[in-house]
Every structure is written in C-alpha cells, then in structure tokens.
Amino acid sequence: MRRWPLLLLPALAACSSSPTRYWTIEPLAGLPAPAAPRGTAPVQIAAVHVPLAIDRLEVVRHDEADRIVVLDFDRWSAPPGSLLRTALTQDLVARMPAGSVVFPDAPAPAGLRRITVDVLDLRRIGDRFVMQASWSLAGPAARPHALRLDAPAGEGDVAAQTAALATMTGALADSIAAALARGQGGVTPG
C-alpha cells in the first residue's frame, strides 16, 4: 500500500491541463486631441453593452458560420463590457482635450454628458474581425451613431482577436471624439 501514491504521480502529471491565459484590451495611440470648444461639458462612458453570447469571462469566438466556441483556457481579466469601457475611456482621454473625459466611476461633475455604447455583433468575417456598434449621449434628444468597425484577423487566435478589439475600440474613440469636437453628439448637456 505504501507504493500506491508513488504510482499515481506519473498518471496525475500526464492528466494536467493547459495553463489558463488571461487577456485584456489595451488602449492604442490615436489622433491628437483637438482644441475644446468653450463651454464644452465633459463626457463619461456610462456603459458598454455586449451581446449576452460573449458577455462571459471565457473568451468566445463567433465566426461567420454562426458558431460560437467557448475557449476554456483563454479568459478575459474582467467582464468584456468592463474591459471595453476602460479601454474606450483611456482612448478618449488620449484623443480629447485635458479634463474633458471623466473616468467611469468618478463622481459626475455638473453638466456631465454620459455616453452609452452598444455592441450588436462581433465576429470574424474572412480575414477581418468585424464589430457592429452604436454610441449615443444620454438625454431626450439622443441620436445613435451606428458604426461598422473592422480590423485584421491575423492568425485568428486570441492574441489577434485582442489586438483587433483594441484597434476597433481606438477607431470607436476616434469617431466619438471627432463627433463631439464637431458638436454632433446629438444632445445638450444634462
């Protein structure tokens, strides 16, 4: 009986699983910040909503054949909507005048304009990752800004998917910053 535990060690070592890898979305350098119009109220990314099929800690691949594959050993470091919200905020800070972006959970200053982002779809199509999304400022005169964003799929692995998400989030920040600089946010502060 004393030899039994020693015999199990090689069998247990052979059954070990792959290590779990954790991923995040890094902000990208963007366009230089435009000059802020006088009296422009600050903005805050209030929420980023993602489809329920991908709103999980495991990385999910949704391909053009309408298949969803859950990758058990590749996980997001936080919920995907939260990662996108943080990366988008960081991207906006880099693209907008100083003091015009309020961090996600910071107290709301007077006149704060809240932005909500809705991701309708995210999948690989051919050699590109594609995101259909819209953003809008909260308020009675809110006007959604629909976008189709894409980025190279590269090898199609999780690293490429993460890089594509960072690229598309940066392009979304470019679109938001440009619209706000032109006064096309669609709503008055409130």
General description of the model:
The protein has 190 residues and is α/β, with parallel strands linked by helices. It has a single domain, classed as 3-Layer(aba) Sandwich (Rossmann fold). It contains 3 helices and 7 strands. It has a 4-stranded mixed β-sheet. Helix 2 (80-95) packs across helix 3. It starts with a helix and ends in a 9-residue tail after the last helix.
Give a quick set of tags describing it.
alpha/beta; three-stranded mixed sheet; four-stranded mixed sheet; 190 residues; Rossmann fold; globular
Question: What order do the helices and strands come in, and which of them pair?
Answer:
Layout: H1 4-14, E1 21-23, E2 43-49, E3 58-62, E4 68-76, H2 80-95, E5 113-125, E6 128-137, E7 145-152, H3 158-181
Parallel strand pairs: 1-4, 2-5
Antiparallel strand pairs: 3-4, 5-6, 6-7
CATH class: Alpha Beta
Number of strands: 7
CATH topology-level name: Rossmann fold
Shape: globular
> Helix- and strand-based class?
alpha/beta
The count of helical stretches stands at: 3
Residue runs with pLDDT of under 50 for 5 or more positions: 1-13
- What is the first-to-last residue Cα distance? 75 Å
* Strand ordering within the main sheet: 2-5-6-7
Classify the helix fraction into a percent range. Answer: 25-40%
The fraction of residues assigned to DSSP E strands is 25-35%
SSE order, one letter for each helix or strand? HEEEEHEEEH
Biggest sheet statistics:
4 strands, mixed
Query: How many structural domains can be distinguished in the coordinates?
Result: 1
Mean pLDDT: 83
Q: By CATH's scheme, which homologous superfamily applies?
A: ABC-type transport auxiliary lipoprotein component
Radius of gyration: 21 Å
CATH architectural group: 3-Layer(aba) Sandwich
Report the oligomer. single chain
